[in-house]
Amino acid sequence: MSSREPVFGWWDAPPFIGELIQSLSGRGQALFGLTSPPMQNRDLVGLAEMILSRRGEVSGAILAEAFLEAYRQASGSDRDTFMRALLDRFGPDSEVLEAAVSAYQADPSARNIARLHEAAEPRRQELFRRINFAKRGTATLVEMREHLMGMLGKEPALQPVDLDFCHLFSSWFNRGFLMLRSIDWSTPANILEALIRYEAVHDIDGWDDLRRRLAPPDRRCFGFFHPQLEDEPLIFVEVALTDHLSSSVDALLARDRQPMDPKQATTAVFYSISNCQRGLTGVSLGNFLIKQVVNDLKRDLPKLDNFVTLSPIPGFGAWLRGEGRVDDAEDIREEKKRLVARLEGDWASADEHELDAIRRVMLPLGAHYLLNVRRGNGRPVDPVARFHLGNGAQIERLNFLGDRSAKGMRQSYGLMVNYRYRLGEIEKNHEAYAESGHIAAMPALRKLAQPVSQEVF
Q: What span, in angstroms and rounded, lies between the C-alpha atoms of 455 and 157?
């Protein structure tokens, strides 16, 4: 790590340094003129320039704290203005960069390469590092990136700023800094409240519902935490211990189900993985989480030999309805139209004959969607598929009406999928997917991924 890349702030320093800074804060803010006018009127850009103009750690920490206070009180439009300034005013110093380029061209030495690398770095990256001197600087930077993400749709020119956030976050939130914690019914209430708030796959309907997911002996929950966000999980996974390959999340979450002895479980079902910090979107967390949870479960419960998910297929419904830009073959388009026409109305409670007719069309289309519908880079359109396949899982089985909730019916007409993590094949599957986009899948699923050829409606 270079001297330009401090990761944590002054509160991680030896105690006497933190005490010194705290004792100087009042006088220091007066020294810099930060107590008047009122902080809410303080110019964020001006404060940012002051932060970059100072070299001392004490003054840097004081200014960083002042900036955070000003940012907390800033209006949405003021924050928008600051994000644009990060692009326009806090990029690389052009004069310094030109001088470094000239020096490298004249003498491509290691010293001049290092000089060029330093000169090419945008000033905003150093600004982010210095803001991180302040207590809760990390949390505020994550919030800043979340605000920026809300602007990108209408202002894509801000993408370079977003890339700089991601560049630093990928270092600050790497596996070495993350702490895996088991979350259960005895976990502090503020963290349990975060689970209810951030659950993104299967909504948690209050405290009773949460207790059913955490308290029984055959249920587990794990989360990654960061030293500077101790009370906020970054990501968490909910696990059901079973003796079979689960096909229905409704059965897993049933109010009247009978818990089993976890020591008799042979299968761990990962049925919900939720990111908690939108500002960390794109920073790899889930792959580390699953691998460590598998190792911990295997250590504690030696009988476990199957590690699978019961996952949503969030893009399937939109694809069936023809939303998006996928260029399907004519026969696939016709099958989709016929199926969607049949799915209009309340069909999930139809008789078994009708449900079988729908199943015979939906499953092949679901298999085709997961295996064959790709983005321009050759990866699957479905985001959950990209996540698990990229982690080395294989597609195991499709489950008709696996999720009958309103959300499940809306996003995939109830269709769910099991991804299996075979411990001896994870690396091989990951490499094949990364190198060529090859999707590991059971032969039966590949056979299923064929257009429906007979009339069933």
A: 50
